[in-house]
Amino acid sequence: MDGTTRWKASVGSPPWARGSLSGPMRRAGSAVDAASLTAIAAACRDHETLRFDYRTREGQASARATEPYRLVHSGRHWYLLGWDTSRVGWRTYRVDRLSLRTPNGPRFVPRDPPEPDVVAYMSRSISSAPYRYQGRFTMHAPAEVVAAHMPPTTGTIEPVDARTCTLSSGANDLDELAVWVALMDIDFEVHEPPELIDRIRALSTRLATAVLRHPP
């Protein structure tokens, strides 16, 4: 393990999908019909612009035009990495939230991916980028031990040494993020954001006060 939570590479994918499709076709999680996956993977292969309607996690709908690069399965959901031509940047889309339009748009010249390790890039974008708060922690346990406590898309892990690692994860609620890390039952230090540091300090004081009359 390289210390970063990873998604599985393609297993048993048809020859035309290799290089654009990562992850087994059948896994638990949101349902995506095979026809949509086939159409998206074919557009990745043929370098054809995809046109689709997309719904964000907040329920906002918009029309998108994207140069598709790769499909990846996280263990629960299918995701598409592509260059959004309107927003002029790389975006990661959850496939069960998009509705394809036909026909496809024009062919395009493939761009270099945002970084060489596309799977690691997508893992970070899913685990942190969409959230209001981005937490960073030093975990006092080896990277592989921390990884065993969390699904791959929950956060990214980078080893510091044989006994510690850095965990980055996001959430829309400070309490949710604080309690989630605490319930791993691993000693840790929180580095950012400042709001999370203050919230953990307040929660620690409240919990300590709750047991003052019950000495160990």
From TrEMBL:
Coiled-coil intervals: none
Segments of this protein annotated with the region Disordered: 1-24
Ranges of residues in domain WCX: 150-207
Domain (WYL) ranges: 37-99
Superkingdom of origin: Bacteria
Name the record gives this protein: WYL domain-containing protein
Organism: Nonomuraea longispora
